[in-house]
Design a protein that fits this description.
about 30% strand; about 20% helix; four-stranded antiparallel sheet; 1 helix; alpha+beta; Rieske Iron-sulfur Protein; iron-sulfur
Length: about 150
């Protein structure tokens, strides 16, 4: 083989190796991050589980802060959740972790919206209204105690 052929082969192998590493890094950026779940798990302790039972009884929000027919962002045990008041005095909560790629979903009135890929969820049920999310948001247990929303 000539010296020119060896250099070309060497350059091609080096370029291919750099390309493979670059591709791996790009694909790693598309994977869910630690503490998120793309399999429909709830937020919780960074493990994709519902907030731990040790948060039961935690004061989450004032009922008056959640508009009837609307929603707000909140946290339970340090994990992001979404609170909705579909009818006066009835509050439901959902994990704020998108079931598509694990991004944090935001309250937007009668819907929840994922800023990463545009999934939209119904705030009253957590159901997917617009994909690419494959599953509804998991419900998180809350109750109303007087004028407060309580975890558990």
């Amino acid at each position: 083989m000539t010296e020119a052929t060896d250099l070309t082969r060497r350059a091609a192998l080096a370029f291919g190796g750099v390309g493979a590493v670059g591709s791996a890094l790009v694909l790693a950026g598309c994977a869910p991050t630690a503490g998120s779940s793309s399999d429909g798990g709830s937020a919780g302790s960074g493990s994709g589980q519902a907030p731990a039972s040790d948060v039961a009884g935690q004061d989450v929000a004032a009922l008056a802060d959640i508009p009837v027919g609307g929603s707000i962002d909140a946290t339970i045990g340090g994990e992001p959740v979404l609170l909705s008041q579909p009818t006066a005095g009835t509050v439901v909560a959902f994990s704020a972790i998108c079931t598509h790629q694990g991004c944090v979903v935001a309250a937007a009135g009668s819907q929840f919206e994922c800023p990463c890929h545009g999934s939209v969820f119904d705030a009253a049920t957590g159901a997917v209204e617009q994909g690419p999310a494959p599953k509804p948001l998991p419900q998180v247990a809350v109750s109303v105690d007087g004028d407060r929303v309580i975890a558990g």
